[in-house]
Amino acid sequence: MEELLDSPLRVHGALHESGYGGSERERQILARLQAMGMETLVVSEAELASASDTEQPQGIVAIARMPEHSLVELPDPERGRWLVLDAIQDPGNLGTIIRTAAAMGVSAVLALRGTVDVWNSKVVRSSMGASFRMPLVPLTVAELQSFLSDRGIPLWAADAGGEPVQQKSAPRRLALVVGNEGAGVSAEVMQLVQRRVAIPMDSAVESLNVAVATGILLYMLQS
Amino acid sequence: MEELLDSPLRVHGALHESGYGGSERERQILARLQAMGMETLVVSEAELASASDTEQPQGIVAIARMPEHSLVELPDPERGRWLVLDAIQDPGNLGTIIRTAAAMGVSAVLALRGTVDVWNSKVVRSSMGASFRMPLVPLTVAELQSFLSDRGIPLWAADAGGEPVQQKSAPRRLALVVGNEGAGVSAEVMQLVQRRVAIPMDSAVESLNVAVATGILLYMLQS
């Protein structure tokens, strides 16, 4: 709720239990909603539970419009990072990746077909509020290709067979693609890639979790 | 199953469904169990489901003894990394951290009180087999203190208020402590710490997921 209220998203209303507002933090959230002239509805615990899909809802649920970002409207900074996701399937991984991308100054997250719905509720929760601020754009491989070539942004791929990633080795503008938890970056997307980078690791371990790998690569390749 | 069979753990037996063994990969697993003289029992789908705690069991369940490692028996390499966990609560995070530690060449994972059970089944699954090879040692703060001082291993902490982490800045032998998802490293443990290191990030983001942060720090501080 706090992350939503701090974000640019438009909140349309909220439901909360009658007991909500007992702590200072909860009182502040209700006061902020009231100051915005927001309609809030007091509901029973059972009604709140039916409106929420978590096992332990926090006593309040808000409604906001999912933002839609088009590729052409995305900012075009001189130094920038774009993160491309090729069929990331686990919602917890995707949310953690969005949170990590926000922390690492990524301009937008571009989600290719086969990636779990970016507005899946588990994705939103795992992103810890980053989904409310980070532009998330579903797109096709053809749209990705046009976007990169129109803007002159090179594409690098996370790939175990690539060269070891070097700090400060990346160009001012760069898109990084990370692939599916099992299969990695698809052959179709690999055709758009200029360079493949790997995270050197102990040979007994097959791979890193995709969110951890994305974090290390985005950190090493910062602009 | 494959990770377990590849590990040093002693397998005591296995249950599988009658349909298991249809694929080449499954056939190989059964052949390996047979070659080890292992007792395997064919059970019904319902029986297998009751022996497994995943929603979609993979048709086979094995029994192995949880390894017990004592602090004094841990290897004592001249160059080494030890990872200390201070009250990590989410099983998925813990499993991912163990997997990451294995990839980054950590010698042992030391789990302080308040950390979720290292043999929780969700931890084991998230570790992708790393739990079968990485020494996992539950311990108290006093035991940690003795371990570090007996061996002369300095302790650094992951802390948002620390100095920005630098690559190749760490001593040959180093223990890194990462803290609870919400509260970070506790004051009690912080008293044992020589240096606090942070991951520089966008100011709009409060924190990274603890597994992602651990991955970046272990990568930057490699021996």
Question: Would you give an account of this structure?
Answer:
2 copies of one chain form a homodimer. Chain A is an alpha/beta fold and 223 residues long. Chain A is built from 8 helices and 9 strands. In chain A, the strands form 2 sheets. Chain A has a 6-stranded parallel beta sheet. In chain A, helix 2 links the parallel strand 1 (11-17) and strand 2 (40-43). Chain A is elongated, with a radius of gyration of 20 Å. The A-B interface holds A 92, 96, 99-100, 102-105, 126, 128, 130, 133, 167, 199, 201-202, 204-209, 211-216, 219-220 and B 92, 96, 99-100, 102-105, 126, 128, 130, 133, 167, 199, 201-202, 204-209, 211-216, 219-220.
Largest interface: chains, residues each: A-B, 30 and 30 residues
Strand order of the largest sheet of chain A: 6-5-4-8-7-9
State the low-pLDDT regions of chain A, or none. none
Mean pLDDT of chain A: 94
Distance between the termini of chain A: 31 Å
How is the quaternary structure best described? homodimer
Shape of chain A: elongated
Query: If helices are DSSP runs of H or I spanning 4 or more residues, what is the number of helices of chain A?
Result: 8
Strand content of chain A: 15-25%
Largest beta-sheet characterization of chain A: 6 strands, parallel
Structural class of chain A: alpha/beta
Sequence of secondary-structure elements of chain A:
HEHEHEEHEHEHEEHEH
- Radius of gyration of chain A (CA) equals 20 Å
Helix content of chain A: 25-40%
Give the beta-strand count of chain A: 9
